[in-house]
Write a structure and sequence with these properties.
Blueprint: H1 4-7, H2 22-34, E1 38-42, H3 49-57, E2 62-66, H4 74-84, E3 95-96, H5 105-109, E4 121-125, E5 128-132, E6 141-142, H6 143-160, E7 167-171, H7 179-193, E8 198-203, E9 225-226, H8 232-241
Parallel strand pairs: 1-8, 1-9, 2-7, 7-8
Antiparallel strand pairs: 3-6, 4-5
Helix pairs in contact: 2-3, 4-6, 6-7
Length: 242
């Protein structure tokens, strides 16, 4: 037997969850494994939405960001992605400094650091070569360029290793109340998804036709996954198994 408070927890995720919604899980996994997809996962709280998304996250290298932190739009997006990927930023807002070997995401995700050879170490990022020589000189690149390149390398490494594409999860996407800001973030992430990463947007029901998608030209990449209410059989299982 399991205590009720371990299963039904109004203010936090349950500590015991044993009822797996297999068909729904299979659908989300299939979409995520394709790479390059924008996947809104839509459902009210306590339907297993977060558990479902975490199952997919466990299958691939991933970055998780609560959307509450992104009200400032694309600039906040790049900053939080850089932090999650352990890419060092300069005191100049929106810039990345230092050689690629200083980017923590390589060791964090087990990705090989690319090299160009020669006396100096460096990498070509979005057409801008940044190097760090023995004299200590450095070159800067835009934060968005560095993050996009990092995700491209993650996707490439996953493909070469026959693993699942990397995943970015923006949780509670509806917390960004301004449609223009949501649209700005979606457009900013298009180049990242074009490199075969997967974006999962956790949001509320009815957001299949979010006005933020207007003018983004994402129709071919966008597939919503609604999370339905628990049916009677599932509720019986929850009450008996967790």
């Amino acid at each position: 037997m399991v205590q009720t408070t371990k299963v039904f927890t109004p203010n936090k995720p349950p500590t015991t969850t044993s009822v797996k919604r297999q068909e729904l899980w299979d659908e989300l996994v299939q979409l995520a494994d394709q790479g390059g997809a924008f996947i809104p996962v839509l459902g009210v709280t306590k339907l297993g939405k977060t558990t479902l998304i975490k199952d997919v996250m466990r299958r691939a290298n991933h970055v998780y960001i609560p959307a509450q932190q992104l009200s400032a739009g694309a600039s906040a997006l790049w900053s939080h992605l850089a932090t999650a990927l352990e890419i060092p930023t300069s005191t100049t807002k929106g810039k990345v400094v230092g050689d690629m070997s200083t980017w923590g995401f390589f060791s964090k995700f087990g990705v090989k650091i690319p090299t160009l050879g020669g006396a100096e170490t460096g990498a070509s990022v979005g057409g801008q070569k940044k190097v760090e020589s023995t004299s200590g000189s450095t070159y800067e690149v835009e934060l968005s360029t560095a993050v996009t390149e990092a995700m491209r390398l993650l996707a490439k490494a996953a493909e070469e290793a026959e693993q699942n594409p990397p995943v970015i999860v923006l949780d509670d996407f509806h917390f960004i109340t301004d449609p223009a800001t949501r649209r700005e973030i979606l457009l900013a992430l298009r180049p990242v998804m074009e490199n075969d990463a997967t974006l999962i947007l956790a949001s509320l029901p009815g957001r299949e036709h979010d006005e933020a998608y207007d003018g983004t030209n994402l129709d071919g990449r966008l597939t919503a996954v609604p999370v339905p209410k628990w049916d009677d059989d599932e509720l019986i299982l929850i009450a008996t198994r967790g």
